[in-house]
């Protein structure tokens, strides 16, 4: 079945939202607070990196890019979730659902590829420190960020076109808060294992391949660090990687649970909670992880906040 056989005006209905007004208002306030913290935390990181000259290094350029991608990533679905929480009718057209899924999956995949680029940056810095300035140039960093976004969106577009060219059943209820792959695939009437395998292959390219690259990179980093004779040197090397490794485990753990499994193992209630973790929890925790475990980042943020505080005092 092709796009011509679908009606663009065909609508899906989201079923995950609570029916009681009190619960909806509580959800709205909680999600609004989390989203405000996500926006403020990631913008603060981007501004700090931009204004602080000593942070103009590849590692922080990647971190700033990660914050920018996560701002866009959450903007795709969180405002939509907030609007649906207050609306009585929680419908979405076929075209809007496909568009939302393209950008949500695409930017989420870009996140994974960018984390792999950050792992490569740490590998070069620790295993080839003398060649680091020659290898990790500004041009390479820009190309890696752009490649992460482009590859993520291309993979996502191919996957979404494939899904929405499949025949949908009469049931239009999506047991989720937004258009994600597992709940939408539950509405597909085609039962061929080829369709499910195609989704798993796309998920493997976006999740498993970068993860194995990161795992290999860290194996080489650990081998190099263990050869250092200085305990202080080993501690410093591991410390520079700990924040990134924590974010990797959090991001890939949630993504692997959602996408690298057969469609038959989908459990709506449990998966709705997991989706909120990687939609709200991960973008909220990433700035905290990178700031609390990084003295340079903490110092830069304190400078930005102090500068803004004194600027407001002068204006007043």
Automatic annotation (TrEMBL):
<feature type="transmembrane region" description="Helical">
    <location>
        <begin position="200"/>
        <end position="226"/>
    </location>
</feature>
<keyword id="KW-1133">Transmembrane helix</keyword>
<keyword id="KW-0812">Transmembrane</keyword>
<feature type="transmembrane region" description="Helical">
    <location>
        <begin position="140"/>
        <end position="164"/>
    </location>
</feature>
<dbReference type="Pfam" id="PF13853">
    <property type="entry name" value="7tm_4"/>
</dbReference>
<dbReference type="InterPro" id="IPR017452">
    <property type="entry name" value="GPCR_Rhodpsn_7TM"/>
</dbReference>
<keyword id="KW-1003">Cell membrane</keyword>
<keyword id="KW-0552">Olfaction</keyword>
<feature type="transmembrane region" description="Helical">
    <location>
        <begin position="23"/>
        <end position="47"/>
    </location>
</feature>
<keyword id="KW-0716">Sensory transduction</keyword>
<keyword id="KW-0472">Membrane</keyword>
<feature type="domain" description="G-protein coupled receptors family 1 profile">
    <location>
        <begin position="41"/>
        <end position="290"/>
    </location>
</feature>
<keyword id="KW-0675">Receptor</keyword>
<feature type="transmembrane region" description="Helical">
    <location>
        <begin position="101"/>
        <end position="120"/>
    </location>
</feature>
<keyword id="KW-0297">G-protein coupled receptor</keyword>
<comment type="similarity">
    <text>Belongs to the G-protein coupled receptor 1 family.</text>
</comment>
<keyword id="KW-0807">Transducer</keyword>
<dbReference type="InterPro" id="IPR000276">
    <property type="entry name" value="GPCR_Rhodpsn"/>
</dbReference>
<feature type="transmembrane region" description="Helical">
    <location>
        <begin position="272"/>
        <end position="292"/>
    </location>
</feature>
<protein>
    <recommendedName>
        <fullName>Olfactory receptor</fullName>
    </recommendedName>
</protein>
<feature type="transmembrane region" description="Helical">
    <location>
        <begin position="59"/>
        <end position="81"/>
    </location>
</feature>
<dbReference type="InterPro" id="IPR000725">
    <property type="entry name" value="Olfact_rcpt"/>
</dbReference>
<dbReference type="GO" id="GO:0004984">
    <property type="term" value="F:olfactory receptor activity"/>
</dbReference>
<dbReference type="GO" id="GO:0004930">
    <property type="term" value="F:G protein-coupled receptor activity"/>
</dbReference>
<dbReference type="GO" id="GO:0005886">
    <property type="term" value="C:plasma membrane"/>
</dbReference>
<feature type="transmembrane region" description="Helical">
    <location>
        <begin position="238"/>
        <end position="260"/>
    </location>
</feature>
């Amino acid at each position: 079945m092709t796009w011509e056989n679908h009606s663009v005006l065909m609508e899906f209905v989201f079923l995950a939202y609570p029916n009681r007004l009190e619960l909806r208002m509580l959800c709205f306030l909680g999600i609004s607070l989390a989203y405000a913290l996500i926006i403020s935390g990631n913008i603060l990181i981007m501004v700090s990196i931009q204004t602080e000259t000593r942070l103009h290094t590849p590692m922080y350029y990647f971190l700033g890019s990660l914050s920018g991608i996560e701002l866009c990533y959450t903007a795709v679905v969180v405002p939509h979730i907030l609007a649906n929480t207050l609306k009585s009718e929680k419908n979405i057209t076929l075209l809007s659902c496909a568009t939302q899924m393209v950008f949500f999956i695409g930017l989420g995949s870009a996140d994974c590829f960018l984390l792999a680029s950050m792992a490569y940056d740490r590998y070069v810095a620790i295993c080839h420190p003398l060649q680091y300035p020659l290898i990790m140039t500004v041009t390479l960093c820009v190309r890696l960020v752009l490649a992460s976004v482009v590859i993520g969106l291309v993979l996502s577009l191919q996957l979404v076109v494939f899904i929405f060219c499949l025949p949908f059943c009469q049931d239009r209820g999506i047991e989720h808060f937004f258009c994600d792959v597992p709940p939408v695939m539950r509405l597909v009437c085609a039962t061929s294992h080829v369709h499910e395998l195609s989704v798993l292959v796309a998920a493997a390219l976006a999740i498993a391949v970068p993860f194995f690259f990161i795992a290999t990179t860290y194996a080489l980093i650990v081998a190099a660090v263990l050869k250092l004779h200085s305990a202080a040197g080993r501690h410093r090397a591991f410390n520079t990687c700990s924040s990134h490794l924590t974010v990797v485990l959090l991001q890939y753990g949630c993504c692997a649970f959602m996408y690298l499994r057969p469609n038959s193992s989908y459990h709506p209630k449990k998966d709705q909670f997991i989706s909120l973790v990687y939609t709200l929890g991960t973008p909220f925790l990433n700035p905290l992880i990178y700031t609390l475990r990084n003295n340079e980042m903490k110092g830069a943020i304190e400078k930005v906040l102090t500068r803004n505080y004194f600027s407001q005092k002068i204006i007043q």
